[in-house]
Design goal:
mainly beta; Ubiquitin-like (UB roll); Porin; 16-stranded antiparallel beta sheet; three-stranded mixed beta sheet
Length: 566
């Protein structure tokens, strides 16, 4: 580094870098591996469907970070087979010898392995849990007494315990304790209890539901059967009330992640919603309950769920909008006498929309398949979230309406060519159709597009079929695709460019791909820590292809979150 004082008030700092020679990996050799061949070590192990193996092999660019990663991969290979080191060490020691060849520009690598003997788990001891029950911790462990001391699954167990968020960050420790028998070891799980409850309140604004305030509480380590503190059982409880200019929402949610002591999640919801932002002509009220069961299939990423919902849904209009009124005014041709002139004022809503007025009892059963390989955090940069859901209302389940619904949704995330760049590709499609005694699907279960979460260049729910007054009626078929590329500008601020396309059709299974609406636009993602972990989404979108019943001018959309709930 060189400092140049070019003036009394100016300092120039020059960094002088000597890059040296760039090395590639020449040969890779393993020594001390008596129990496994070099080829077996190269193949590695599979963790949660992802291969873990040495990657910096012959011909690859040599980097110190890559060398450390490959040493850990070799340790994981041995750890997965119960080789955890000698004495009180809890890892295989993998030494490395680097032999540079300056003439060829290569680095020969020798991994010196100290295998030791395979071990099994004699017992698992849990320490530090003052309020969390032992069984809540043990059921998250991927290893059991009597099994091979698989250090890869021990690492996975540690990640699961940290993901519960019951314990202080960084205070979940796994260690190996020797016993009197050389090849039997104890696994010590040491935790430090943290705060698992949260009380919150705040206010927000979006272009859909406008101004609103909310208050609520969560308890992530709830125990329904442990009064008076009701903590330590690993259950989840959430209470929230949201009141705004265009909505009123009350919710109670309860989750038992290990129902009947099986890895089977039971969730239960009670709710009452009064939604005014769907339309200026009516408000929609929903009161009901939902109960469901979920469990993982094959891997934690793939889940299946079954649920049952019973709710009363009402569409309520102002009576002045639905009644035919007769207005009497003095006639200008009455020659001094008060002769009234009667004028018939028709309803302000269409007969099609008026048919939706009233309350309906909906009883439906649903099933969902979900595949989620995204990384953690609010801004995924890899993986996908795909879900397929199906529900059937009425028929043998009772209620006032009969219909079935199919819905497929998928979002894919990719890292861009530069640090912090993220590409999000999303799409969804669905069909809903009446059956049995019902001649139509009720308004509240039809599909709508438009607004901050779908086609951002159009008004909320205004893409698709409309009545003669221009009021959205929803449809029986829809499809939607979106692409968004975002980049960091400064800390807590991202810039995004996007394209959306999709359409809603009145009939079921009517995928008329030649008829669509699309838009493009730009936006900002502003993270304000005082307002929570999810950022403000500010988008401005321009319609491209649209019909005569939708506006072609640009539209501003305001919402919250990095990703959108399709």
């Amino acid at each position: 580094m060189k400092l140049d004082y070019s003036s009394p008030t100016r300092l120039v700092i020059r960094f002088i870098v000597y890059e040296g020679q760039r090395y590639k990996v020449g040969s890779v050799e393993f020594k001390g591996n008596a129990r496994f061949t070099a080829e077996q070590i190269r193949q590695g192990v599979v963790v949660l469907g992802r291969p873990v193996k040495p990657r910096m092999l012959e011909g690859e660019i040599f980097t110190p970070k890559g060398l450390e990663r490959d040493r850990e991969a070799i340790e994981d290979f041995y750890g997965a087979h119960g080789y955890i080191g000698k004495g009180e060490r809890d890892r295989i020691i993998v030494g490395t010898i680097k032999n540079p060849n300056t003439d060829r520009g290569t680095m020969d690598l020798v991994y010196q392995i100290d295998e030791g003997e395979p071990s099994k788990i004699e017992k698992i001891e849990i320490r530090g849990n003052t309020k969390t029950k032992d069984k809540v911790i043990r059921r998250e462990l991927s290893v059991s007494p009597g099994e091979v001391f698989d250090m890869v699954r021990v690492k996975l167990s540690k990640e699961r315990l940290e993901g519960l968020q019951y314990f202080t960050q960084g205070k979940v420790q796994m260690s190996v304790e020797p016993t009197e028998v050389p090849n039997l070891k104890n696994l010590i799980v040491d935790v430090e209890e943290g705060s698992s409850g949260n009380f919150y309140f705040g206010a927000g604004f979006s272009s859909i539901d406008q101004l609103f305030g909310y208050v609520g509480m969560t308890q992530g380590n709830f125990d329904l059967f442990n009064p008076p503190y009701f903590t330590g059982g690993g259950q989840k409880l959430r209470l929230q009330a949201t009141i705004g200019t265009r909505q009123e929402n009350y919710e109670l949610s309860f989750v038992e992640p290990w129902f009947l002591n099986r890895h089977l999640a039971l969730d239960f919801d009670l709710f009452h919603r009064d939604i005014l932002y769907y339309s200026d002509l009516y408000d929609q009220r929903e009161t009901g309950a939902r109960i469901g069961l979920r469990r993982a299939l094959f891997t934690d990423a793939f889940q299946i769920g079954l649920n049952y919902t019973i709710e009363n849904v009402g569409i309520h209009f102002d009576q002045s909008l639905t009644a035919t009124n007769i207005v009497s005014t003095p006639s200008p041709f009455s020659f001094g006498q008060l002769v009234p002139l009667h004028t018939v004022v028709p309803p302000s809503i269409s007969p099609t929309l008026a048919e939706e007025s009233g309350d309906r009892l909906v009883s439906k059963v649903g099933a969902t398949l979900t595949y989620d390989t995204r990384g953690g955090g609010y801004l995924p940069s890899r993986g996908q979230l795909t879900s397929l859901s199906a529900s059937v209302a009425g028929g043998p389940f009772g209620g006032d309406t009969d219909f079935y619904k199919l819905d497929l949704q998928s979002s894919w995330y990719f890292k861009g060519p530069f640090a912090g760049h993220v590409l999000e590709l999303g799409g969804s499609a669905g069909v809903v159709k009446a059956y049995g005694d019902s001649t139509r699907v009720p308004l509240f279960d039809r599909f709508f597009l438009g607004g901050a979460n779908t086609l951002r260049g159009y008004k909320f729910r205004h893409v698709g079929p409309k009545d003669e007054f221009g009021e959205p009626l929803g449809g029986g078929t829809y499809w939607f695709l979106s692409a968004e590329y975002s980049i960091p500008i400064i800390e807590r601020l991202r810039f995004a460019a996007f394209y959306d396309i999709g359409m809603v059709y009145s009939k079921a299974y009517d995928f008329n791909l030649g008829n669509y609406n699309d838009d493009w636009g730009v936006g900002l993602r502003l993270l304000i820590p005082q307002l929570g972990p999810a950022p403000l989404r500010l988008d401005y979108a321009f319609p491209i292809t649209h019909g005569s019943d939708t506006s072609g001018s640009g539209r501003f959309q305001f919402s919250v979150g990095y990703s959108r709930p399709f």
